[in-house]
């Protein structure tokens, strides 16, 4: 029975009668409080099904249910360790006597250790992320299995170092065995010839060549591949495994060049090897002289041919492997370095300079790949990202074009990397199509390695492997002696088989050259335990570095000579081994466990798809799109239904199978509605997502984990990496796409086999919904347009009959205030206003103007305005009437209208009159500072500006003052930029945009008209307002943060402005005596019903925790 057509296995029965009155409607379920799952046997009745019971036996349990069994097993480890020590020359006698153990010092130290352990474990349990819990749905983490824990703990009692066989004879054998287990699970063969066919379930009907069976030929397995023997080993993590694979691919690519160079330089080797023949990449059936190959052909020999070179030198030319190794050593890339080898080859053979080979890899690559490129000398610039489609899978058509371009340009390719389980989205790249491209381009004459980064997804291969026959230990390998892990007939459990696309890719793993796999991810093994497998085990010889002492006295392979690491714990290999032996790497073992979590992932995906609707003030949009028919089935047949009911419904099961990602990660975006209209501002949606993440994690500040009701993780889909994939998600979220902003997403990863028990996925959905609803109000409030008080800095003297300029104090994160607004207004009337209470009088502020109970739209309409003016150190405010409102600049500061990069140089708007020209910094990106000249600037221009030009406002570019290099601005940069009285070189341009232009690119001066050049000096420190950045995230450490809105609130956070004597402006003058730069920092805390989110206690800082650890 195929995995695709297999009926999903049963489930823990969710019987509402055993859990109280629990309605089936999702909306009602979500309203239940957490008490429904707090006490007693919340998830009963437990399954009577053999498979799920077996899965449960592999873990301690979310509530420590198996603690007595684990304590008993821990005791057995201690007893066994003590017995083993006693058995080694018992005649030596005891060295720690009874008298010593009864001494006061021994007792005190024992008590101190117990006290220290208690303090340590208390802090550990308080601040560690509860991976073990069904409430944890964040990263690719769950509790490690009991066999793995026991394997690790029992082994660290002897602390073997797997760097050398003499330091780890037993655990070296264990690691070699584990490597073979991983290889075979992934589809590689550790057998050769007929044994390979038997392992694959092929009938050994040999073809004409006498070596390959008909089935092997049908699936594209060559005779050489059939006779390869795979090899794998444990690394500390996937990053090191990826680095090693890149190291191997680099050395493999340059090995033929090294041999050709050695033959030219070493005349003995050259003459002896003159007759060496081998097949070319494009014609594998017709050997040619090795010396006849050009550089391109040498750089594109097939992998098996390169690995055969040493053997061919021996069999064809009689050259011993020892001599060829000695003759080649100084020409290897390991010795010379890549660039030196290429240069030497070019100089020796008078060829055109060789082009740098490149890696081609999916844009969803792990961050370890650029690191590996840097470490191996390949360089991150030679790591070419291939765009992904809307499913976050590598685009094959683009890969083909990139390969063809490199073939045409004669740019060698080290490798193509496909990701089998992206860590952000759970996507599986089309590996089968990548391998077809490899065949296609090898036929043209270009060869490369295909590597599968299955660090996350590798263990899902167990879902397509049949249980093996009862094991017969191979000669020279660990005789395990454990029973076959079969568990009788397949019982119905809540388990899914793979989708067709996913299964195809896992079956294609067998044809890759190397695979990264992490047991400490989907293998449920303690850290550190990564892994790397080679289809042809000879590849490991390409990174062999032997230290003489490593092999002294050893008759068995020391695996420490291969790869990046030196010393490595044997305990990691032991943990992996015990888990493999206990659980089994097949569909009735580890595959069943992962099948259960895929079921849970799909059920969780159904909740993300239906958690919001047209009536909710928030929206949840799954990354993996759900169509209308699927939505109907989810609402009618899945939400509110227990697993047993869903399993009986074929249509529901088929719909559920197609939900979510290729594996078990659900990514989704969150947004909100204001007055029924979906928010279109990408930044606001991103901030909401960030606040949700911080509320459901401990990333931001130390929190007792009990205060976090559930855990999620997050990611950012960057446009330069995700392209159309991120754009499609933003469209479905209702967000604008023109600005090209990145989009923030939340993730849940299903790793627990217990989350689907008793419908707990619905409890997770309920918790999430409550969290979002608590966070929403400030987002809705600040994005609701309404009449309120607006505040301005006054440029000029606010006296009757005068014309003044008003510079608005904006805020990026309030839709009412997202404007850079400069107005010219006439003062029609001034009269004394209200008295300012003594405690509200502030000195050193600029003249402020406040206009109450209105909107920006009404302000710029030109009607008369009633305003209040407040001056520094005055006892009364002034009531004024303003008229003849003229807009100098009205520029939107919404994220859709801001630039993605800061301008290269500082730009400012220059406006006013010939007698009083003023300046305000042009703001085009956040975060930023508003830099406003409250007094006229001094100009020395080649051509004076006209009255009309200043009235409209021009753009000044400070040609020697960089902005991009200084941003985000700090005090040191500010002092560097603006020195009072010093003239700066400027260019003055006509503003190419209308005064009310609302778009990005406002400072693109390439088509702007240059009016004049000259110099400009500030006669006073510009007034600095940082409040435009205030309250970006309205929730900070559980408290509501809002920007100050009223003038009274504003006056308590305004920066002081010191009024220096007006200096005489001069060119190149030294800066006057340094004065404290005014900093307008604003963080206004409002204590209200939301001030403690999720009932947090008094906040600690991480410094407090560090101090507590240090004081133990």
Layout of SSEs?
Elements: H1 26-29, H2 50-57, H3 67-87, H4 98-101, H5 104-127, H6 146-156, H7 169-186, H8 194-199, H9 214-218, H10 223-226, E1 231-235, H11 238-265, H12 267-272, E2 277-279, E3 287-289, H13 295-298, H14 303-317, H15 321-328, H16 333-336, H17 338-349, E4 358-362, H18 368-375, E5 383-386, H19 396-409, E6 413-419, H20 431-444, E7 449-454, H21 500-508, E8 514-517, E9 530-534, H22 570-583, H23 590-610, E10 618-622, H24 628-638, H25 643-647, H26 650-657, E11 665-674, E12 677-678, H27 682-695, E13 713-717, H28 719-722, H29 724-732, E14 743-749, H30 760-782, E15 788-795, E16 803-808, E17 819-835, E18 848-854, H31 856-859, E19 865-870, E20 876-892, E21 905-912, E22 917-921, E23 930-932, E24 938-941, H32 947-952, E25 954-962, H33 971-977, E26 983-989, E27 1010-1017, E28 1023-1025, E29 1035-1036, E30 1039-1042, H34 1047-1051, E31 1084-1086, H35 1102-1110
Helix pairs in contact: 3-6, 6-22, 7-22, 11-17, 11-18, 19-20, 23-24, 24-26, 27-30
Q: Explain this structure to me?
A:
There is one protein chain. The protein is α+β, with helices and mostly antiparallel strands. Among the domains are: 325 residues, 3-Layer(aba) Sandwich (Aspartate Aminotransferase, domain 2), CATH 3.40.640; 184 residues, no CATH class; 108 residues, no CATH class; 134 residues, no CATH class. 33% of the residues lie in helices and 17% in strands. The protein contains 35 helices and 31 strands. The chain has a 7-stranded mixed β-sheet, with helices on both faces. Strands 15-16-17-20-19-18 form a 6-stranded antiparallel β-barrel. Strands 22-21-25-26-27-24 form a 6-stranded antiparallel β-sheet. The longest helix has 28 residues. The chain is globular. The N terminus is likely disordered.
């Amino acid at each position: 029975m195929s995995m695709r057509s297999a009926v999903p296995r049963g489930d823990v029965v969710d019987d509402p009668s055993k859990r109280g009155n629990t309605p089936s409607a999702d909306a009602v379920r979500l309203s239940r409080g957490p008490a429904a799952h707090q006490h007693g046997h919340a998830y009963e009745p437990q399954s009577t099904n053999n498979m799920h019971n077996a899965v449960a036996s592999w873990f301690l349990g979310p509530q420590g249910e198996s603690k007595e069994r684990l304590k008993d097993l821990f005791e057995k480890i201690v007893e066994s360790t003590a017995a083993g020590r006693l058995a080694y020359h018992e005649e030596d006698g005891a060295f720690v006597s009874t008298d010593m153990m009864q001494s006061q010092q021994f007792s005190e130290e024992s008590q101190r250790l117990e006290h220290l352990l208690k303090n340590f474990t208390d802090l550990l349990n308080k601040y560690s992320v509860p991976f073990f819990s069904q409430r944890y749905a964040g990263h690719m983490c769950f509790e490690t299995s009991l066999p793995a824990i026991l394997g690790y703990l029992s082994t660290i009692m002897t602390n073997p170092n797997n760097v050398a066989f003499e330091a780890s004879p037993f655990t070296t054998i264990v690691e070699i065995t584990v490597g073979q287990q991983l290889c075979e699970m992934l589809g590689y063969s550790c057998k050769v010839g007929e044994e390979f066919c038997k392992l694959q379930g092929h009938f050994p009907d040999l073809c004409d060549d006498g070596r390959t069976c008909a089935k092997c030929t049908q699936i594209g397995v060559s005779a050489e591949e059939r006779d390869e023997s795979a090899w794998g080993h444990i690394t500390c993590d996937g990053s090191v495994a990826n680095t090693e694979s890149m190291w191997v691919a680099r050395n493999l690519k340059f090995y033929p060049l090294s041999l050709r160079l050695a033959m030219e330089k070493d005349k003995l080797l050259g003459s002896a090897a003159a007759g060496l023949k081998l097949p070319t990449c494009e014609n594998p059936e017709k050997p040619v002289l090795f010396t006849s190959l050009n550089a391109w052909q040498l750089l594109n020999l097939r992998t098996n041919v390169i690995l055969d070179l040493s053997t061919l030198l021996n069999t064809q030319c009689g050259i011993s492997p020892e001599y060829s190794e000695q003759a080649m050593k100084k020409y290897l890339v390991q010795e010379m370095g890549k660039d030196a080898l290429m240069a030497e080859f070019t100089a020796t053979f008078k060829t055109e300079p060789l082009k740098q080979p490149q890696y081609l890899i999916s844009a969803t690559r792990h961050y370890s790949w650029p690191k590996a490129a840097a470490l191996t000398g390949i360089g991150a610039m030679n790591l070419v990202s291939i765009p992904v489609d809307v499913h976050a899978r590598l685009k094959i058509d683009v890969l083909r074009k990139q390969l063809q371009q490199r073939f045409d340009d004669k740019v060698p390719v080290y490798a193509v990397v496909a990701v089998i389980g992206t860590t952000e989205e759970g996507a599986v790249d089309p590996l089968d199509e990548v391998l077809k491209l490899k065949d296609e381009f090898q036929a043209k004459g270009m060869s490369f390695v295909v590597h599968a980064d299955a660090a996350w997804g590798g263990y899902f291969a167990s879902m397509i492997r049949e249980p093996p026959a009862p094991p017969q230990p191979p000669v020279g390998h660990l005789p395990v002696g454990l029973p076959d892990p079969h568990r009788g007939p397949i019982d119905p459990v809540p388990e899914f088989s793979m989708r067709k696309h996913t299964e195809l890719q896992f079956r294609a793993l067998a044809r890759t050259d190397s695979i990264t796999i992490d047991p400490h991810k989907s293998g449920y093994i303690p850290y550190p335990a990564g892994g790397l497998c080679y289809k042809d085990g000879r590849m490991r010889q390409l990174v062999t570095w032997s230290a003489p002492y490593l092999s002294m006295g050893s008759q068995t392979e020391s695996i420490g000579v291969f790869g990046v690491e030196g010393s490595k714990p044997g305990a990691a290999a032991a943990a992996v081994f015990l888990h493999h032996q206990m659980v089994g790497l097949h569909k009735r073992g580890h595959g069943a466990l992962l099948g259960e979590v895929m079921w849970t992932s799909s059920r969780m995906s159904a909740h993300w798809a239906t958690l919001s609707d047209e009536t909710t003030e928030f929206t949840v949009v799954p990354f993996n799109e759900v169509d209308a028919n699927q939505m109907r089935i989810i609402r009618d047949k899945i939400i509110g239904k227990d697993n047993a009911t869903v399993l009986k419904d074929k249509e529901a099961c088929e719909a559920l199978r197609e939900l979510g990602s290729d594996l078990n990660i659900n990514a989704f975006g969150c947004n909100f509605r204001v007055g029924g209209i979906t928010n279109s501002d990408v930044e606001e949606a991103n901030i909401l997502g960030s606040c949700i993440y911080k509320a459901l994690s401990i990333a931001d500040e130390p929190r007792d984990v009990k205060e976090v009701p559930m855990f999620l993780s997050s990611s950012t889909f960057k446009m330069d990496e995700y392209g159309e994939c991120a754009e499609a998600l933003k469209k479905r979220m209702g967000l604008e796409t023109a600005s090209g902003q990145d989009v923030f997403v939340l993730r849940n990863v299903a790793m627990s086999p217990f989350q689907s028990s008793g419908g707990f996925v619905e409890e997770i959905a309920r918790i999430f919904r409550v969290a979002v609803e608590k966070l929403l109000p400030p987002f809705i409030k600040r994005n609701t347009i309404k009449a309120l008080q607006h505040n301005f800095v006054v440029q000029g003297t606010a006296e009757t009959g005068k014309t003044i300029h008003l510079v608005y104090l904006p805020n990026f994160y309030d839709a009412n205030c997202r404007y850079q607004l400069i107005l010219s207004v006439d003062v029609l009337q001034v009269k004394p206003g209200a008295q300012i209470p003594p405690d509200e009088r502030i000195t050193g502020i600029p003249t402020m103007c406040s206009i109450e109970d209105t909107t920006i739209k009404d302000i710029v309409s030109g009607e008369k305005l009633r305003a209040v003016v407040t001056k520094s150190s005055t006892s009364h405010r002034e009531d004024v009437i303003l008229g003849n409102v003229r807009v100098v600049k009205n520029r939107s500061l919404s994220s859709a209208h801001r630039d993605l990069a800061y301008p290269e140089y500082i730009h400012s708007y220059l406006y006013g009159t010939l007698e009083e020209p003023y300046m305000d910094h042009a703001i085009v990106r956040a975060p930023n500072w508003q830099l406003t000249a409250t007094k006229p600037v001094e100009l020395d221009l080649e051509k004076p500006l006209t009255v009309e030009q200043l009235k409209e406002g021009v753009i000044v570019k400070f040609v020697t003052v960089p902005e991009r290099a200084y941003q985000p601005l700090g005090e040191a940069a500010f002092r560097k930029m603006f020195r009072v009285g010093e003239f700066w070189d400027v260019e003055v341009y006509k503003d190419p945009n209308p005064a009310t232009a609302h778009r990005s690119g406002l400072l693109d001066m390439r088509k702007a008209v240059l009016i004049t050049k000259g110099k400009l000096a500030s006669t006073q420190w510009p007034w600095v307002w940082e409040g435009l950045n205030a309250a970006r995230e309205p929730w900070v450490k559980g408290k509501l943060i809002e920007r100050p809105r009223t003038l009274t609130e504003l006056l308590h956070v305004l920066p002081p402005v010191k009024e220096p004597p007006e200096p005489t402006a001069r060119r190149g003058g030294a800066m006057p005596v340094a004065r404290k730069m005014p900093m307008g920092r604003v963080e206004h805390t409002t204590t209200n019903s939301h001030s403690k989110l999720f009932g947090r206690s008094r906040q600690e800082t991480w410094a407090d925790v560090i101090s507590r650890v240090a004081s133990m």
